[in-house]
Amino acid sequence: MFCFLSSFVFLALVPSVLGQSYLEGLVQTLNANGLTQLASIGTSLNGTTIGQQVLAALPEGNKTLFAPTNAALSALDPAVAGNQNLLSDIIAYHVVSGNFVNQSETYPNVTIGRTLLNDSALVMLEGGKAQVLPWSKAANGSMFALNGGSNVTISNMTTYNNTEILIIDSVLMPPPNMTTILGNASYELTSLSSILQSTALTGGGSSILNALTSAHGITVFAPNNAAIAAAQSTLSGLASNTTALTAVLVNHIINGTSVYSPEIRANQSLVSAGGEQYSFTNNATGLFVSSGGSSPVQIVQSDVLVSNGVIHIVNGVLVDTSANPGAASSAYASATSIAAQTVAETGPVGASPTSTGSSGGSSGGAVMNGAPNPVILGVVAMLAVGQML
Ligand SMILES: *[C@@H]1O[C@H](CO)[C@@H](O)[C@H](O)[C@H]1NC(C)=O
Ligand SMILES: *[C@@H]1O[C@H](CO)[C@@H](O)[C@H](O)[C@H]1NC(C)=O
Ligand SMILES: *[C@@H]1O[C@H](CO)[C@@H](O)[C@H](O)[C@H]1NC(C)=O
Ligand SMILES: *[C@@H]1O[C@H](CO)[C@@H](O)[C@H](O)[C@H]1NC(C)=O
Ligand SMILES: *[C@@H]1O[C@H](CO)[C@@H](O)[C@H](O)[C@H]1NC(C)=O
Ligand SMILES: *[C@@H]1O[C@H](CO)[C@@H](O)[C@H](O)[C@H]1NC(C)=O
Ligand SMILES: *[C@@H]1O[C@H](CO)[C@@H](O)[C@H](O)[C@H]1NC(C)=O
Ligand SMILES: *[C@@H]1O[C@H](CO)[C@@H](O)[C@H](O)[C@H]1NC(C)=O
Ligand SMILES: *[C@@H]1O[C@H](CO)[C@@H](O)[C@H](O)[C@H]1NC(C)=O
Ligand SMILES: *[C@@H]1O[C@H](CO)[C@@H](O)[C@H](O)[C@H]1NC(C)=O
Ligand SMILES: *[C@@H]1O[C@H](CO)[C@@H](O)[C@H](O)[C@H]1NC(C)=O
Ligand SMILES: *[C@@H]1O[C@H](CO)[C@@H](O)[C@H](O)[C@H]1NC(C)=O
Question: What range does the record give for the signal peptide (predicted)?
Fold first, then answer.
């Protein structure tokens, strides 16, 4: 009751400039839930251009705000917390367009949302798209965001106007670049990283690793260290034939598009950067991928995000030495032209239309249907009264 009363009083004192009253209302809600540090960052966002864009975007359409607790924000590196631009980018990464938390998938499946983080210093996705954020629901119903390989617990939820607020116990950090992730020992992809660093694309030029890191939209089926070790004799046999080795490597890559796990399913037609057709099988063991005529390998960890795409870790090497340059360039051209069509994504990214029961599709346009949220209506009514006072 106290917080309702104080918000009436507060709103009555604030000039009823639309944007400002929205922010003040949001700040009230955050403070009322103990999220005082986030509230204070919110009021200082107007100090940067990126922050101003976030503030302008927040009241538009439905939003989901992942709201770190005071403890989480206090643990932030002071060099990050003191960098207003970086902090604005980080906050942008905590806001998802749309409100589809009620459609969350059960782990190991994930729901993926498009955030507001589109700063080209940190994100290089196809078509200038903003970075995505995956989350999931445990078997016991508790929800968590997936960030840099760890689970970030969602401890509680509340609502302000158009924004569902999910309280989280860690700050979500924007994904690093491909070179950083492949070189990070904890992902066990360092053998692949070495091979990609010492092999050039057909036609010469820089290493495949550089080509991957500088791409705008890329998907990698990345064999882990154990997979590379198990395929060592095959790979050594190919070492003298760079054409074949390069073909094998680029048949682990989709060029020009980021394909997240919800889009990977049986019958999905995807073509590698070597021009080979992928096929996918889902069975009791898990999800398998093969390239051309290769043996299938299992995806053991999906949706490892990077600044310019996504990695799915696999437990074997796709031994496909074939190449079809024509098919590769037409797949790239098609991916690029699809990405250039700007579609506002306010539903789960890549969700199949049938699984959401809504008009989703790969553009992720699904929106929640149904009765108006009583909490939102309550807050709207409360604000209306508050502004009349
Ligand atoms: C809350 O949302 C409604 C639309 O649902 C909008 O008309 C209203 O201005 C919003 N309130 C504030 C304070 O922005
Ligand atoms: C940001 O907003 C606060 C009030 O909410 C105001 O005092 C401050 O001058 C603004 N800063 C900028 C840079 O606009
Ligand atoms: C926002 O979500 C509500 C349900 O929570 C839905 O009725 C409404 O259409 C959505 N608005 C937009 C702009 O997507
Ligand atoms: C999500 O589901 C809960 C419980 O069924 C409900 O209270 C809430 O309003 C729903 N949120 C939206 C945005 O539909
Ligand atoms: C995950 O998604 C796949 C493919 O849609 C489905 O077969 C499987 O049952 C789902 N698993 C869970 C735990 O929801
Ligand atoms: C990023 O998104 C904001 C809206 O959130 C928009 O105003 C801005 O133009 C976008 N910037 C780029 C580089 O796409
Ligand atoms: C994340 O949570 C899921 C579901 O509870 C669990 O299976 C998985 O092991 C957790 N991952 C990490 C890195 O803790
Ligand atoms: C969740 O928030 C509600 C209302 O803000 C509060 O009553 C409840 O105690 C909170 N639950 C937890 C587990 O913090
Ligand atoms: C990748 O990120 C690291 C850490 O931010 C940076 O030092 C490095 O220059 C980046 N590499 C490329 C190729 O952009
Ligand atoms: C090298 O591999 C390519 C493609 O796999 C194959 O066509 C070619 O015959 C191989 N060359 C040699 C010398 O084995
Ligand atoms: C992706 O396609 C473009 C255009 O054909 C090409 O320049 C680039 O080298 C390709 N990248 C990879 C990793 O195959
Ligand atoms: C699932 O498919 C893979 C690849 O075809 C196969 O190796 C595995 O034995 C299958 N598992 C089951 C339980 O059928």
Answer: 1-19
